[in-house]
Each structure stands twice: as structure tokens, then as C-alpha cells.
Amino acid sequence: MIALETLHQKLGLAEPGAESRGVFWLNPGDKSLREVTQAMNEIGARFITITAYQLPGDEGFRLEYHWDLDGCLLGLPFQITGKSIDSIFDICEAADWIEREIHEEYAIDFAGRQYEPLLLRATDTIGVNLREEVKK
Amino acid sequence: MSYKIPMGPYHPGLEEPYKLNMICEGETVQDAELNIGFNFRGMEHLAETRNYYQVIALMERVCGICSFIHTLTLCQTMEKLTGLEAPPRAKYIRVVMAELERLHSHVLWAGVAAKLMGFKTMFMSCFALREKVMDVLQAISGNRVNYSMNRIGGVNRDIDDPTSLLPLIDELESAMNKTIIPIFTTSSTALSRCAGVGILAHDKAVSCGVVGPMARASGINQDLRRDAPYAAYAEMEFNVPVEPAGDVKARLLVRALEILESCKILRQALTKMPSGEISVGGDKFPFETGTAACRVEAPRGEVIYSVSWKAGSRNPARVHVRTPTFVNMPAVRWMVQGARLADTPLIQASIDPCYSCTDR
After folding, report:
1. From the centroid of its chain, how far is CA B111?
2. What is chain A's pLDDT, residue by residue, as a tens digit (136 residues)?
3. Is the ipTM, as predicted for this complex, more than 0.85?
4. B84, B320, B359: best to mutate for the A interface, most A CBs within 10 A
5. Residue B334 contacts A where some CB pair is shorter than 8 Å
6. Residues of chain A contacting B81 with CB distance shorter than 8 Å
């Protein structure tokens, strides 16, 4: 079992994490999403889900990646200013459907993967439902 | 020559819409493609338009079987954002309701599995047992499906005489021990349909990130009730059944053994239930700005809610729900590869899929 106090060192992160409202948050710093995912695979963390938030104005999106480590819920936030972020599907099979769902709900591109067929609905429109400008 | 057989969106064994296109060589399935979203309801978007009372009623309708679990997870998440903690008696009532719901779900699934095996007598026996559990859920909450039990800071209804439920637990445990488990584990009808069928190997289960009984039937020893206890689970003693085989029989066995463990938990919760109030916090809730997340072990596995709120608002800014079927379903592709076409309805049913949850 890895102690949470030293978890950031195992993951190669600069800062230690901190618990807030049920989640042990870690700051990825200058580590890329794919580097963090590889490190999570190496320590045996289980991928849970990604939660997407649209930020106000042109600030883009905040994607919160969640893993489980021995019953502890880990969270890593990644902010994207454009519409694209690297896919982790090829190194984390469990991320397949949630990447597809976020692509369809927010029109965010997970670079390096295919999406077809659409997961949630039978039209060609993406970004419906949860993306602000489409909701309006 | 290979050919494609579409199964669904009207499923032969489950009354829920999804489609599995199977690529076959003769009677053997080579590969499969999955399509969901036929009844997608956009509930995460709807949740942003509901206040903190309405959103509980809305998310109770994510699932018709584990409706209590969804409100439990949501309320526990909202409690983190309001700084409230449910009183001890409410935590025990939450455990009782959650375990009754697990019993109801697992016994229902055993009945459906028996029906798909062509074992109609067992189907009737399982559904007769399920009715008894439903009667108790109705006696406690007044409802059979959407129980309206959870609120921010506790529960809405008390259990007046908890020990009066103990005879039902004895009856259920006896029926499982004397009839259902021996028949499922020894009858040639059950074994010929389940043993060695629909295997999800341990490594593949880890890679797919499957949860709940499906993970435990592939040798993954995980259960949030033990690993990250919530409500009053930290005060309960129980075992987590794990089977290594990864086939339909293992999934059946894990759920059957979990019924016995649920009986054990219920007996403890009903006899040790502390007295006191069942909710705190009044009618208005001061939400803090920020994000909170909570996980609960539903009958089908881990449910997670991520909720974001802005202080002063009555509505959530964002509610994200990740249901167990959403992560378990993609593994069906690997489970049907190499299987006989006739076994595929049972293999799909063996994950206990819920498309109401998935098409939330």
C-alpha cells in the first residue's frame, strides 16, 4: 500500500496532494496527462472516470480525471483552453466510453483516437446537451 | 464465411434497449460491436435546472432498481458541499435500505438468469423471494421503486421497529442456503449453461476497469463498503466473496454469496441501530462553492457522483454520474468472443446490465 503523503513522488509530481470533500487532489504541474496515466498504471491505480466542466467565457474546459488507489479516490485536474486534449484510450482501455461520451457532450477532441459509431445518440451532431453555446 | 447478427435494440432476455452486432463464423462469435443511447435522457443537463430538493427526486429516477443508491450517493456528495453529516441512526437506516436494495437486485438477477437458462421453476422461486424483499422496502418507505428515503443530512423516514424485520432475513437466508445456492452450483442444467461460458480473464477485467460482482467474479478483490466505508459500513462485519474463474458461473456464485453477506449486514444493522434523530440541517442549505465527489457500492458495482456548486445558488452547476454498467458493458465484447451464439443472451445478462443507468 502506498502512503498518500508520498504518492506524488511515486507519480513523479512536484507537489504533495491534499484531501478536499472526498477527493485526494494531486497537481499534475508540468506532467502531461499521458505521463500521469502511465504512472497511475505503474502503481496499479484503477481508472474511474473523467468529469468535464465548461469554464466561463473563453476559458475552455476543466477535465477532472479520477483514479482509485486502495479505496482512496484520487483526482487530477487538467485545464484545456482549446478544444483538444490527448486521448489516454491506448494506454488506459477503461477510458474508452467516457472519452467518447465527453466528445459527444462537449465537442472536445481526444487527440489520437477514433470515435465512431457515436455512443449516445443517432445523429451526427456533437457538443449537444452540455456545451453552453449549444444549450442556448 | 463470416456474417453479422444484430441482437437488439429489443433484447431477447432483458427488457432494455441496446444493440449488439455480432460477427460470427458458423455458430461461433468472432467479435461484437456495442450500441447504446437509444433512450438517452440527458439527466445531467436536467440536473442543472433543478434546485437541491428537485435534483434528488430527479436522480432517483436514473435507475429503477438501485434508485436508493443514486440518491444516497448524491446526498452524501451534497453533504460534503454543505458541511453536514447524517446522524448515526440515519446512517444505519441508509445501510438497511442499501442492503435491501442489493437483495432485491441480486434475487431479481438470479431469476432473470434462471429464465435465460430455460430454468423457469427457479425463475418463479427467485421472484417469489424478491416479492418479500419488495414488501419490506414498501413497508419502510411506502414505495416499491422510488423510495424517497434520502435527504441532505439524513433520511426522510424512520424504521419504527427494526428487529421486526429479522424473520424476513432468516427466511431469505434459509431459502438461499437450502434451495437457490445448491441448485445453481450443482444442477446439471445450470452448470452446463454457466461453467466456462463468457469468461472475462483477470487481466482483461483489470484493463477494462470493471466493477462490482463482475470484477469480484474475475478475481479482483474490491468492494467500496470495505475499502472506503460510507454510511455505517465501518461498523459492520462482513466478507467480500471473490471467485477467480471469470465465467458466468462465477458471477452467479458471487451474487449468491453476496446475498448471504447482505443478510449478515442487515442483521447487524437492525439489531445495533442506535436511537436518535434521523436528519439534521433544517430546510435550507448553505452550499459552499466548489466540487465534491462520492462513491457508493451499488448492487452492480461502484457509482460515483461529482457535483459542482456555486455558493448562493439553489441549483447545481454540474452533476456527473458514472454508473457501473457504463464501465462493465464494454467488457461484453471480450466476453462473447469465441462463445456460442446461443450463449450470448446469458453472457450479456450475466453482467446484470442496466441501460436505464447507462442512458441516464
Report:
1. 15
2. 677 777 887 878 888 888 888 899 998 888 899 999 999 999 999 999 999 988 887 788 899 999 999 899 999 999 888 788 899 999 999 998 899 888 888 888 888 887 766 666 656 666 655 665 555 4
3. yes
4. B320
5. no
6. 21
pLDDT, average across residues B46-70: 89
The H or E element spanning position A76 is strand A72-80
Q: Is B42 on the interface with A (CB under 8 A)?
A: yes
B222 touches chain A (CB under 8 A): yes
Query: Which of B209, B326, B329 lies nearest to residue A46, judging by beta carbons?
Result: B209
For chain B positions 189-218, those within 8 Å of chain A (CB to CB) are: 206-209
B238-250: buried (b, 16+ CB within 10 Å) or exposed (e) per residue?
A: bebbbbebbbbbb
The boundaries of the domain holding residue B14 are 2-358
Check if B315 contacts A (Cβ < 8 Å). Answer: no
Indicate which CATH number applies to the domain containing B28: 1.10.645.10
For chain A, give every domain's residue range.
Answer: 4-135
Looking at the partner chain, which of B294, B302, B320 has a beta carbon nearest the beta carbon of A51?
B320
Element (H, E) at A75: strand A72-80
Residue contacts between A and B (CB atoms, under 8 Å): 88
Q: Using the predicted structure, report yes or no on whether residue B341 has a pLDDT greater than 90.
A: no
Q: What average pLDDT does this structure show over B196-214? A: 92
Most A-contacting residue of B44, B211, B291, B351 (CB-CB within 10 A), to test interface: B291
The per-residue pLDDT for range B286-328, each reduced to its tens digit, is: 888 889 999 999 999 999 999 998 888 888 989 999 999 999 9
Cβ distance A118 to B80 less than 8 Å, yes or no, reads: no
Between B317 and B118, the more confident residue is: B317
Is B292 within 8 Å of chain A by CB?
yes
Hey, are the CB atoms on A71 and B293 less than 8 Å from each other?
no
User: Among A94-108, A122-136, B89-103, B346-360, which range has the highest average pLDDT?
Assistant: B89-103
Please identify, in words, the CATH class of the domain defined by A4-135.
Answer: alpha beta
Tell me if chain A has a CB within 8 Å of the CB of B81. Answer: yes
Q: What does the pLDDT average to over B11-30?
A: 82
Nearest CA in chain A to B19: A119
Number of domains in chain B: 1
